[in-house]
Amino acid sequence: MHTLEDVNKDRLPQHVAIIMDGNGRWAKQRGKLRVFGHENGVESVRQTVESCAKLQIPFLTLYAFSTENWNRPKIEVDTLMKLLVTALKKELKTLHENNIRLKAIGKMDTLPEKVRKELEEVIFKTSKNTGMTVTLALSYGSREEIKTAVQQIATKVKNNIISPENIDEAVINTHLYAHFLPDVDLLIRTSGECRISNFLLWQIAYAELYFIDVFWPDFREHHLVEAILSYQNRERRFGKTSEQLN
Ligand code: FPP
Question: Where in the chain are the domains?
């Protein structure tokens, strides 16, 4: 089993994004309710944040709740929201002690008042931290993010604030929820499903994808290490040839 020591610190992904999947199936395997899986998933979140902080990965983004997740049974949605509030309250001190800045992306105005307030408080209180940035994608959907950016840019064109010829990738990027994040280098999805599910579509243009057949509540440091080692063994060509890179 590989450890953090095996990771090449000179070739770290700067931005790791994770689709934390499989909580429900993990619980079902144990004859428990789905929410039991989410409760145990919180520990994987804690450990993964800690491992990334140890490695000094600058950006970690976690898909915690999608726009589509609102369609789940009310009891599950309510439990997830409660878990978030509890985790935020509990982890504020640890985030601070580890110089971690918390951020969020998504449709914040659709979150319950209690979650939004707690989130805003932790984001504010950790805003001056200069270590890793942990971003929670909450009530997030990538198409919705892009649609909102297009609407904002269109309004600016209409009001003569920007001309269509000047709309470039940088302009689009500044209008996205995730405007403060660099492109994703490594995208991990747990649970064995091999799809993106409307997560950071703009930002993963050149990301290395890593799918692992482990349910999120079982995801541990050595799994993260395997993902990073796989990333470090790949040649990222960004459209160039291998010869051009060498
Ligand atoms: C996907 O598993 C997981 C989620 C929709 C929620 C992820 C939330 C947590 C890990 C807990 C709270 C998070 C934080 C940041 C404290 P699934 O329910 O889709 O599993 P399934 O595919 O097996 O049904």
Answer: 4-142+184-233
Q: 35 CA distance to ligand 1 centroid (A)?
A: 9
* Residues β-bridged to residue 140: 66
What are the pLDDT tens digits along the chain (246 aa)?
A: 999 999 999 999 999 999 999 999 999 999 999 999 999 999 999 999 999 999 999 999 999 999 999 999 999 999 999 999 999 999 999 999 899 999 999 999 999 999 999 999 999 999 999 999 999 999 999 999 999 999 999 999 999 999 999 999 999 999 999 999 999 999 999 999 999 999 999 999 999 999 999 999 999 999 999 999 999 999 888 888 888 887
Tell me which CATH code domain 4-142+184-233 carries: 3.40.1180.10
Instruction: For CA atoms 217, 218, 224, 226, give the dihedral sign.
Output: negative
196 burial via Cβ count (<10 Å: 0-12, 13-18, 19+): middle
Spacing, Cα 32 to ligand 1 middle (Å): 15
**Catalytic position from the list 8, 69, 78, 109:** 69
Q: What is the pTM of this model?
A: 0.96
